[in-house]
Amino acid sequence: MKRILTALCLSGYVAVAWAAAEVGKPTPDFTATDITGKTHRLSDYKGKIVVLESYNYNCPFVRKHYKPGAMQELQAELTQKGVVWFVVNSVHPGHGDYRTREAAQKEWNELGIKATAWLDDSSGAIGKAYGMRTTPHMFVIDKDGTLVYEGAIDDQPSSSGDPRKARNYVREVVNKLLAGEKPEVTQTRPYGCSVKYAD
Question: What region holds the Thioredoxin domain (predicted)?
Fold first, then answer.
């Protein structure tokens, strides 16, 4: 199905309209290769909580979380609790922000990324199926494969400031799920840079 993309960039916000995964419904399955060459299929992780993070380090909103190590700390905290965390890079190969596998591995090591894997989504298939509009744009999938949260990582929609002092929605939602409770917040407006799709 052809998706029509309209984007409006205003003060770091991006509005995009297309078919996307919906909170409260089963998530689209996908198969993707990570930067080490390993193949991941989302359905293979049923029974685990999965976090998807739309990623592009060239975006200042993303750098705000990675430069001080806040994002890496959150990744480590949640993966140690059994959560699967996928960094999803949907930058198309013709864009200056694109990372080859070698460049991605170097960036992974230099930043000390603690996610489960960095998925190459240069085709944009995962990003468009989920409606990833910004970097970052976060998604939390419960153990049954249902999307329970999508939106901003926190309540601080800025490319500056201390992310550790913000209300982190991803941490909050995951901890609620781990405690067997229903998340209070299930959807927020994502903020950041536009995802660099091919079209």
Answer: 21-179
